[in-house]
Amino acid sequence: MATDTDAFDGFDVNGDLDRKRLYGRLFVGVCFLSTLVGVVALVLLIADLVYESWGWLSLQFLTHPPSYFPENYLPGGRGAGIYPALVGSIFLIILTAVFTVFLGVGAAIYLEEYAPDNRTTRFIEANIANLAGVPSIVYGLLGLAIFVRGAGLGSSLLAGALTLTLLILPIVIVAAQEAIRAVPSSQRQAAYGVGATKWEVTRDVVLPAALPGIMTGTILSLSRAIGETAPILMIGAATSMFTIPDSIFGPFGAMPMQVFEWATQPQAEFQHIAAAGSVVLLTVLLVMNGTAILIRNRYDTR
Amino acid sequence: MSSVDISSGAVNDRGTFIARVVFFSCALVTVLTTFGIIAVLVAGSIPFFRAVSIFEFFTGTEWSPIIRPRSYGVLPLIWGTMIIVVGSAAIALPVGVLTAIYLSEYADGRVRRVLKPTLEILAGVPTIVYGFFAISFITPQIQRVFPETGTFNALAGAIVVGIMIIPMVSSLSEDAMSAVPDPLRNAGYGLGATKFEVSTQVVLPAALSGILASFVLAISRAIGETMAVTLAAGMQPNITFNPLSEIQTMTAYMVQVGISDVSVGSIGYQSLFAVGLTLFVMTLAMNVASQFIRARYREVYE
């Protein structure tokens, strides 16, 4: 124990106990009020979105492409909405999921099961921690230079998915590592004891046991990716797409980009449409997080 | 560990060899990402710094690389970022720590089960939605008090970024406080300390390294924050002490170039990488500082 006792000059035991109790109560009050700041902010944010989008959010908002005329978005109008961006975001996330699951789980297995405890491994681990702190817009510049220009993919769905993959890879790896670490060592030893090779232990013992944890972590990371705007903005995702992506090499729209486009329109009506778009985006996020929590609870009680 | 590790005696077959190579390649992607980021930013900045001296870049007080008369002083962008950082830190650091004290020391299990998920939701809201919340709710409230405030102002940006990083400070600080062992608290009580004294004079100093590390990480996040400040604080590079005026952060400038059709190879395009490099170096320094604080000043308990 290494508490700094030199600087500590003892408790004020001679002080009036009533006064100290009063300070204590005031302090709890201040702490509680601070806790409420975050809660109130969240309530205000949701209330603001509901208030602003009220009357603008309908089923046809989900099934129509955007329009330059705000009145088209109103129920009973010609129909306009978020459809291409919604589908674009879903395609983007599915593609990102394919890459991140492969790379993230692979890297986590290497670090937990195969890596020797040497300088290279420690460098890789420290590097992952640092990558998690790089601003997302910098990943956008990386994607722009490497995937859009370097590899000649253009501002395509594939370039967007690869950029988002690199962005969330550090989070997925850390989550997958935790899930793998939670697999009891005795299970591995039992498999080795009956003659399994290391690869067989990885495939038949570690991965099945760690799968729920890996899936929960991956879905939570993907829900971060679906809300990201800056990286796909830098790689040139369309601000407004009127059709859904026709191939992974084609242009794409995404919900956060579409909300950004609406929020920056000069006409006041578009603020309501941006709010409606935000509600759809948050709903998709809620569904993803709910799924992750369901998986966690379903398998946690083994 | 009670069991004997027999994995070293496992058969080293071809499957295991291939698995090791594949999984190592996955881990290598993260290292390549770091090198890729550095290479892209440095290579992209070189043409810019051929045209503009580094001295002019870091000392000039006018930033206008696209519109004539052109000038290339990055200080107004750094100033804009700093206003957001100072303003958001003034909100998030005290609120976050007091929230952490409440959750770790005072709240009972039932309250925690409600408050913690609420803060996690706050952390999961996409930044674009925060940006919309700033222009549709926070700015109108500011305008009620200061009617001369424009649509874009630094204050709304700082407030919304402050709200965004509260969960980061509170959850990391709470982890640090929960790691303080109970015997330390009980020793304080044994000396006749009140709960208030134990919280502020025992737990807080013992968890200080973790709390400071969370501060630095939160500030790093505020520096790199993009969409919320772009929507709320505006696109006008400006060295000002007035929080109600429009500013531009480094990240908002990158968005401005990203959504405009600046041609590849132009000085405007190249400036993107110079600003990106500056941003990357600043956040990297903060992340390394945070790890240093945690490692250097950590109290280790048996």
Describe this structure in words.
The complex is a heterodimer of chains A (302) and B (302). Chain A has 11 helices and no strands. Chain A has 2 domains: 18-53; 83-300, MetI-like fold, CATH 1.10.3720.10. The longest helix of chain A is centred in the N-terminal third of the chain and has 37 residues, at 17-53. Chain A has 302 residues and is mostly helical. Chain B has a two-stranded antiparallel ribbon with strand order 1-2. The chains are: A mainly alpha (302), B mainly alpha (302). At the A-B interface, helix 1, helix 3, helix 4, helix 5 and helix 6 of A face helix 1, helix 3, helix 4, helix 5 and helix 6 of B.
Features of the shown structure:
heterodimer, A: 302 residues, MetI-like fold, 11 helices, disordered N terminus, B: 302 residues, mainly alpha, two-stranded antiparallel ribbon, 12 helices, 2 strands
CATH first level of the largest domain in chain A: Mainly Alpha
Radius of gyration of chain B over all CA atoms, rounded? 24 Å
- Euclidean distance between termini CA atoms of chain A: 37 Å
Please bin the fraction of helical residues of chain B: over 70%
Q: Could you tell me the mean pLDDT of chain A?
A: 89
Mean pLDDT of chain B: 90
CATH superfamily of the largest domain in chain B: MetI-like
CATH superfamily of the largest domain in chain A: MetI-like
Topology pattern of chain A, helix = H, strand = E? HHHHHHHHHHH
